Amino acid sequence: MSVDTPTIPVRCVPQSRISELDFNNIEFGKIFADHMLVADYKNGAWQTPEIVPYGNMSLSPATSALHYGQAIFEGMKAYKNAEGDILLFRALDNFRRLNISADRMCIPELPEEIFMQGLEQLLRLDAAWVPPTPGCALYIRPFIFATDDFIGVRPSSNYRFVIFSCPVGAYYGQPLRVAIEPNYVRSAEGGAGYAKAAGNYGAALYPARKMQERGYHQLIWTDALEHKYIEESGTMNLMFVIDGKLVTPSVSTTILAGITRDSVLQIARDKGIPVEERKVSVDEIAQAHKAGKLQEAFGTGTAATIAQIATIHVNGEDLDLPAVEDRQISLSIAEELERIKTGQAPDPHNWIQKISL
Ligand code: COI
Predict the structure, then answer these.
(1) How many CB atoms lie within 10 A of CB 324?
(2) What domain of life (predicted)?
């Protein structure tokens, strides 16, 4: 999809802030590109979006999203190819997932043209912010929140949709130490675990902090009923290589259907690597490790991309995994994914949308 003429009203910044950015030293999520897209929902309809300078918004203290968490978001990335075009990765899948989250949170469905045309136009305007640096990308954050200034508990009648972006490097700087969570719960059947709802992240902070105090970067969520099956980890889906097979928990109503997860599984299948999407128990991981068959473990996510796991804490014991440089399956998939995203390899699944400048 491509829009040749700008259709969305734009108010440009008087002067770009891009000189504040050191492209060789980009911290995750701290410096934001010059512009943002804003569209409001009122009187039962999404209004014409606008592109405006990135900046603070004025809100009523009674804004309902701040009280009851009626808020959802997405995360996606854009890259630059050797010719300097912007390559947007699987944006339509993020758009679809945003509306799945919207449905779960009683937020009105967002029209595709507001998301896709708005995004294209925003990216053209802020093209200079897409880092050409290997391993870096422009992280794009679309979100919707309830804007009624009313503190009764009910779905809001008014909403705001915003897209802003920020150049990013790696989310995790080193292979991770993770621990199985035996008590706290992220999500249960019938809950909102599959939605990218703000509250899912807020409620996870306390257990994650407790795990960090014990010396682990992240925790691994287990099922709410028995704490027996592995679900996901912090900001990522989880994958294991057990005896040459790529094994991952199947998505369900309790697990976010990760787009990086799906991309990794597709690349694995394309490469002829056996893939199993199924229940994965904590015991299976411990036993595979004991038998020397747990060859690799990693998380997948837009921000995290492919984040290697060095150690998994299970039942009072730290299980150390083989050295990252020996992990042939995840390293080869990560390399292929990066080549597709940056236009260095063919894109057989039409994941890339090229935005010519
Ligand atoms: C992403 O990977 O894009 C996420 O949404 C994780 C995030 C909360 C940093």
Answers:
(1) 15
(2) Bacteria
Short-list 341, 352, 346, 348, CA closest to 134: 341
Distance 301 CA to ligand 1 centre (A): 7
pLDDT digits (tens, 9 = 90+) for 281-290: 999 999 999 9
CB 280 within 8 A of CB 247: yes
Contact criterion met (CB below 8 Å) for 120 and 142:
no
Q: Quickly name the fold that domain 176-341 has.
A: D-amino Acid Aminotransferase; Chain A, domain 2 (3.20.10)
pLDDT tens per residue, range 166-222: 999 989 889 999 999 999 999 999 999 999 999 999 999 999 999 999 999 999 999
Residues contacting residue 346 through CB under 8 Å, at least 6 positions apart = 340
Nearest atom within ligand 1 for CA of residue 201: 8
Closest CA to 159 of 60, 64, 76: 64
Of the candidates 133, 6, 36, 79, which has an alpha carbon nearest to the alpha carbon of residue 354?
79
Any atom of ligand 1 within 6 Å of the Cβ of 75: yes
DSSP 107: P
Amino acid at site 264: V
Atom 7 of ligand 1, nearest CA residue: 235
Non-local (6+) Cβ contacts of 106 within 8 A are: 70, 155
Torsional sign, CA 283, 289, 295, 298:
positive
Name which of 258, 278, 220 is nearest 100 in CA terms: 258
Of 124, 123, 153, 150, whose CA–CA distance to 139 is shortest? 123
Q: How far apart are CA 236 and CA 228, in angstroms?
A: 19
Domain boundary assignment for the chain: 5-169, 176-341
Ligand 1: residue whose CA is nearest its atom 3: 75
- CATH fold, domain 5-169, is D-amino Acid Aminotransferase; Chain A, domain 1 (3.30.470)
Ligand 1 midpoint to CA 172 (Å): 12
